[in-house]
Amino acid sequence: MSINEENIVTGESAKSSAKLFSYGNIVAVLIPLPMLIFWFGASIVFYATQRHHPNPRVGYYTQIAAYQYYALAGLLVPVLTFAPEGFFKNYWLIMWIICIVLIVPLAIMQLIKINREEWEDVTIEKQQH
Question: What is the pLDDT of residue 22?
Fold first, then answer.
């Protein structure tokens, strides 16, 4: 005999979940030490959980925000690895401003899109045996 149980993920909950990666991106670039490094590790776990959210729009917005953040992180690795001696010491402020200019507007545009979208409740059926 199986019993069906229904759980509901509210539209408001899904909307909040969709915003979280973008908020993490903003915090990571505004407070780069230590948040940029911590967010890199935490974002991997966060992405893995949110990408397969019951509401597929949450996964979509999480994926877009992840692309933006990982593109920045991927750009910083070779720049800082192959930069001449003293580059980081002399140009850290310029690099920080570039990171902010790249990530913050994209994250804000993403948050605006999320807020404008109509979010509906999603019903999840669980079967117990």
Answer: 98
